[in-house]
Amino acid sequence: MSSSSSPSVTTDAETLKRNRILSSKLYFDIPIFKLPLIYSPDYDISFLGIEKLHPFDSSKWGRICQFLSSEGFLDKNCIVEPLEASKEDLLVVHSESYLKSLQSSPNVSIIIEVPPVALFPNCLVQRKVLYPFRKQVGGTILAAKLAKERGWAINVGGGFHHCSADEGGGFCAYADISLCIHYAFVQLNISRVMIIDLDAHQGNGHEKDFSSDSRVYILDMFNPGIYPRDYEARRFIDQKVEVVVNNQYTS
Fold first, then answer.
1. Each residue's pLDDT tens digit in the chain (251 positions)?
2. What is the domain extent for residue 128?
3. Where is the Histone deacetylase domain (predicted)?
4. Cβ-based neighbours of 231, under 8 Å, separated by 6 or more
């Protein structure tokens, strides 16, 4: 590719991305009686008990809503249920090659850190593991629209901060944070975004995705001695807060 053709190629890619965002069904109108709280029972991952081989609680999302409901803080009828992110939606950030790699069960098993998943047919992995993730992606993207309209919004799931455009890991298969921000730039006329990442683990996925985007400011508070120890991605954190604790969890 000649350097003279690069600007045209970049423009074509940006136009395609914009068109995908504008044609997406993930933004939709929410009745006023609904709370800006997003959740679906499909978020919860139950896969023959194999999900328990990972320390991450893959049913916590449902338990959170159940607790809020049982304690009288939440009417389940007021929860917003998102749509599943389609392939076209995901291509706003992810490459074709990355999405194709998820058609391999061994690849998915590495990303979610549950080796036995490699032995299952990919159709089952898609339904039991990746579909719940895609629903959560839809929730994260929709949350930005609701936050703009209502002043606040919460997606009970999502926050897959270890996944970047071309690489998943750490139980994160899709880059919902990056996707959410790109949708907001186009659909919500937002010019600047701040990511405040307070998870114990470094959010290396979104850090790599926005490494050269001055519109995104990243504050990341994390334990530098545990996963993912991504020293390259740390260079792209605008405000780094390293918190070292004893008895470190190293998974």
1. 444 446 777 789 999 999 999 999 999 999 999 999 999 999 999 877 776 766 778 888 999 999 999 999 999 999 999 999 999 999 999 999 999 999 999 999 999 999 999 999 999 999 999 999 999 999 999 999 999 999 999 999 999 999 999 999 999 999 999 999 999 999 999 999 999 999 999 999 999 999 999 999 999 999 999 999 999 999 999 999 999 887 654 44
2. 10-190
3. 54-234
4. none
CB neighbours (10 Å) of residue 79? 18
Domain of 138, CATH number, reads 3.40.800.20
Q: Where are any strands of DSSP class E within 67-203?
A: 154-155, 193-197
The structure tokens listed for 148 are 């703009």
Catalytic choice (162, 182, 201, 206): 162
Residue 118 and residue 42 in one domain: yes
